[in-house]
Write a structure and sequence with these properties.
This protein is mostly helical and 240 residues long. The chain is 72% helix and 3% strand. Strands 1-2 form a two-stranded antiparallel sheet. Strand 1 and strand 2 form a beta hairpin. It is globular, with a radius of gyration of 17 Å. 39% of the residues are buried.
Length: 240
């Protein structure tokens, strides 16, 4: 794979909003009672639409990081790993091939540990996120839920050292340039394949199958990597 695509900006990128909210929670910007600003306040502060804010909050809730009380607001339920903020500072420039290579070493190991340590409630959340990915019609939503699933698996693995490495990769893959590249690699055919792979991976995790979970994650990442290589090659031909 070649160099990472050039970054772009978008006020409605829910994945970007999610990353900014994650940093807000991790840096202690929530109120003393753990309450986050309202959707309207967040929309104004971040300079994005309320739809993007609402989606990002839904993803945080699905991950179990925030919870909502009707009429009271949204509260921090579990602080996100602060290494993600550090990762954002040191990520710098990297190549797509380096990210794909690193993910193939780190995420299968996390999936195996997740299979050994996941609780029934963790698996329930994973299945919910997998269904959200499959049911979401627009690319922005699919990216949001996909990232949430991979982060939940990494956090459930319970290894802080590997989680730190994952957080670095997650900061890179959460940028809009990488999001757009993955969107181009997601077609009707690949969406179905990705859903099957996610389902198989979660089945292995639920069964406590460490080796199976590692192999399932590795197969999924290889599929994604191949599709992204194809997209980049097609773009080179068009530009030639």
């Amino acid at each position: 794979m070649s160099d990472a695509p050039s970054p772009r900006t978008s006020g409605e990128n829910s994945s970007l909003v999610l990353r900014r909210l994650r940093h807000m929670v991790g840096s202690g910007e929530a109120g003393p009672d753990g309450r986050l600003p309202t959707e309207r306040e967040l929309s104004e502060t971040l300079g994005v639409g309320r739809r993007a804010v609402r989606r990002a909050l839904e993803a945080l809730e699905a991950e179990g990081l925030v919870w909502r009380r009707q009429g009271k607001g949204t509260f921090v339920g579990q602080p996100p790993d602060p290494t993600g903020v550090l990762a954002a500072e040191i990520a710098g420039q990297t190549r797509a091939s380096e990210v794909a290579e690193a993910r193939l070493y780190i995420e299968p190991a996390l999936a195996g540990l997740c299979a050994a340590r996941a609780k029934p409630d963790d698996v329930r959340r994973m299945r919910l996120l997998a269904e959200r990915i499959d049911e979401t019609a627009d690319p922005d939503g699919a990216e949001l839920w996909d990232g949430a699933l991979h982060r939940l698996i990494a956090r459930t693995a319970g290894n802080r050292v590997l989680l730190t490495a994952f957080s670095l990769l997650d900061e890179i893959r959460s940028s809009e340039a990488w999001r757009l590249l993955r969107q181009k690699a997601r077609t009707g055919e690949t969406r179905e394949l990705y859903h099957q792979q996610h389902t198989h991976l979660i089945d292995c995790i639920e069964a406590g199958d460490v080796v199976g979970a590692e192999e399932a994650m590795r197969a999924h990442l290889n599929t994604l990597s191949d599709k992204m290589v194809q997209v980049l090659n097609d773009e080179r031909v068009e530009d030639a």
